Amino acid sequence: MLPALAGRLGRLRAPTTSRMHAALGGPGVQDFHINSSGNPTNYEEEDEVPPYTPAMQHPAYVVRKTGVDLLHDPWCNKGSAFPKSERDRLGLRGLLPPRSLTMELQAARFMEDYYQPKELIPPEDVKLGGVTSAMARRWKLLQELQDRNETLFYRVLVDNFTEMAPIIYTPTVGWVCVNYHKLYRRPRGMYFSAADRGDMLAMAYNWPQQDVQAIVVTDGSRILGLGDLGVNGLGIPIGKLDLYCAAAGFSPSKVLPVVIDVGTNNEALRNDPHYVGLRIPRITGPEYFQIIDEFVSAVMARWPSAVLQFEDFSINHAVPLLERYRKHHLVFNDDIQGTASTALAGLYGALRVMGLPPAALGQQRIVCVGAGSAGMGVVKMIASGMQKQQGLTAEQAADRFHVIDAHGLITAARSGVADFAKPFARVDPAHEGEDLLSVVRRVKPTILLGLAGAGRLFTEEVLAAMNKGCPHQRPIIFPMSNPTSRMECTAEDAMRITQGRAIFASGSPQPPVTLASGRQVAVSQCNNMYIFPGIALGAYLGQTRIITDRMLMAAAEELPRLIPPEELERGLVYPKLSKIRDISVSIATAVANAAGDEGRLRGRMREKYAQGDEALRAFIASSMFYPNYSALVHLPSGIEE
């Protein structure tokens, strides 16, 4: 028996077909082992087992670091190539994009950039997106500075805010998001995905900062006017939080950009070998809300005092998510509430330009192109302003609006209108589906708002009809869509066709316009960065627990008060961005005062509120981070941590 057994130690014999079929449920299965490449090697009867050969190199490399520290070690870092097993045992879950790439794909991406740098934007793409090669090069230069010296990065940004804001945010951030999977070099922020269900709270503890004050999150479903960009949408929270730090003085070490990856319906991205997100169609329905619920519960459990800002969620999710969480956490949606506050502030500014009081808002006729969550958020906020300033009823305020979507004018005759748009549907069904030009000619609006993200909808004919219909006051034209390629018209179009009469503000920056007469006309940028940093700052310092409509209205009313007379004379409806930190202090003070009036302030802010505006403003200003080099002191690990 023993000799016979010993004679077979070096041999394998395949089991009979019937026996394998019984064990595994299928015929013809052979014995196999996993070879060094990870693939099965089959052995027929009487095949020899290969001899054992000791490895020439150690099969594993011992590391002493985990998490972010490991990712910042250039010798040990594998970037997006870390497999799931290493992500779990090295504390990397959530710090890297969900999909693992091979080294071959990483090398191919590098060589592609080596031969054709991404920042060399073709002229035809410049025309479409408004982002030039120079802007892309500057963005890349700023990212490199941020990677090696974050304090200097923010000092440069604060000192040059007006020039650099379009580089770190709109319009350049749109180009960044479209190309994010090809631009990705170093992890920044966190990634939660549908594959992480059940583990999100544990993953939140992989983030090294114990005190996070502000979180901006997107699911990548509606990035600016560019549509579904999946995990590439992380570029938006990163850019937003750069503004939080530069404009409102949040500490860069205490902010967290996040993307929640629930798949993407962008087939081109799913098929791109370099895409680092889940390559599945976007999850919807109850399963989607369960994923977002787990994320919100996880981050609010670890950082209960943080401001949580939702950004660029699709129309069908943005409003329900806001309503789902806003009464429980310090949550707001900038696309809905920030855009609305900024737009209302701009209209108050336009009235000031014409020497009219805020109450004159209720006398305006408004056409809004775009009936999504952002567009209707703006309409609702303006209607609330009319009710407050002139005492209109909700029905009277709604009658001042004509809302147009992709199917034309919305009336009560249309079925399937979203609940948030129904109060502003025109009662008379006779004009259902009427096109924009016909509406402008018939209604003669004094205010034309663009929030459709569909490009040049304000044609020469529309602008000419708008100008003709406003003989007694200057037409107010706000094409608010981002990025530049999605704007409804340019400043040059509006000023040329209205002969410089228009009061103009756009979502993305536009240069001053020189008319045929040689007169230069200034234009404003209707950008949320005027509002959202100050709202977040006031709410966070005030520990208000929630952000109310009264707080948002206070921000909208405060901003136009900051425009100096000389800028009003030039037709500007917002103050200069060069004063952004002072603006944020003023907005935060107004938000805190509104919260104090509602009895929502806690901590030291409640004490300062009782002492008056000067004490409140001074406390807010002194709480803001300013980028300076501080003295550094070393303490061994574990002491005072």
Automatic annotation (TrEMBL):
One GO BP annotation of this record: malate metabolic process
Q: Where along this sequence does the record place binding of a divalent metal cation?
A: 311-312, 335
List all Polar residues biased stretches.
33-42
What is the designated name of this protein? Malic enzyme
Instruction: Pinpoint the Malic enzyme NAD-binding domain residues.
Output: 336-596
The record describes how the cofactor is bound as: Divalent metal cations. Prefers magnesium or manganese.
Q: Which family does it belong to?
A: Belongs to the malic enzymes family.
Q: Which of this chain's residues are annotated to bind (S)-malate?
A: 222, 482, 527
Q: Where is the active site?
A: 169, 240
